[in-house]
Amino acid sequence: MAAERRKERRLKANIPIKIMGKNSLEIFTRTENISFLGAYIEVDRQIPTGTEVEVELEIPHYSEDLSLAGEVKCKGDVFRCSLVSESDAIKYYGVGIFFTDFHLAEDRDRLHGYIDFLIENEEQEINEGLRRLRYRREAHRLARNAEQKVSGQEEFQEKSLELLKNIVSRLEEIERLLQPKKE
């Protein structure tokens, strides 16, 4: 497995994105993932590596502060375009776009705020998943201990019963020996 070389964390995010470029390039789709540095999309056409594009993202409402949502405009470069699947003679390409310049500082801040929100949610989900995993492991451990305890009690009862049978048998033998012999 190849080592991950990215410096920024990619987050699963399905947000509307519009890509525009030379030669009437105009694509409306949704992101597969996003980071502070760029986005990954899948489209039904090839976009040559190195193509400069205009990007418009539509950040959804995720907070009571409505100013955090809305349109983000920036420039970008296509740094990757590779075939990811083919279905009914339609080819789908995975396209990586590196954000190079935001139109306004507010655009950059809006995107970064949303990504920070996604990171926080992801960390909460991870922590909740770990909490549930620890709970299940503890429940299994307690169940195993209870099962072993019951098994140990059953074994103790069986040994005790066997010992009592031996005692009864020995007492019956002693009783026979102590009884006067009939002549």
Short description:
The protein contains 1 helix and 7 strands. It is of the alpha+beta class and 183 residues long.
Characterise the protein shown here.
The chain has one helix and seven strands, in the order βββββββα. It has a six-stranded antiparallel β-barrel with strand order 2-3-4-7-6-5. The longest helix has 74 residues. It starts with 10 loop residues before the first strand and ends in a 5-residue tail after the last helix. The model has no long low-confidence stretch (mean pLDDT 89).
Throw out a few tags for this protein.
alpha+beta, 1 helix, single chain, 183 residues
Question: Mind sketching the topology for me?
Answer:
Elements: E1 11-12, E2 16-21, E3 25-34, E4 38-43, E5 52-59, E6 70-87, E7 90-102, H1 105-178
Antiparallel strand pairs: 1-3, 2-3, 2-5, 3-4, 4-7, 5-6, 6-7
Unreliable stretches: none
The succession of helices and strands, N to C, reads: EEEEEEEH
The main β sheet shows up as: 6 strands, antiparallel, barrel
Structural class: alpha+beta
Nearest-angstrom radius of gyration? 35 Å
Distance between the termini: 95 Å
- The number of E-state strands comes to 7
As a percent range, the share of strand residues is: 25-35%
Shape: rod-shaped
Strand order of the largest sheet: 2-3-4-7-6-5
The residue fraction in helices comes out at: 40-55%
Number of separate helices: 1
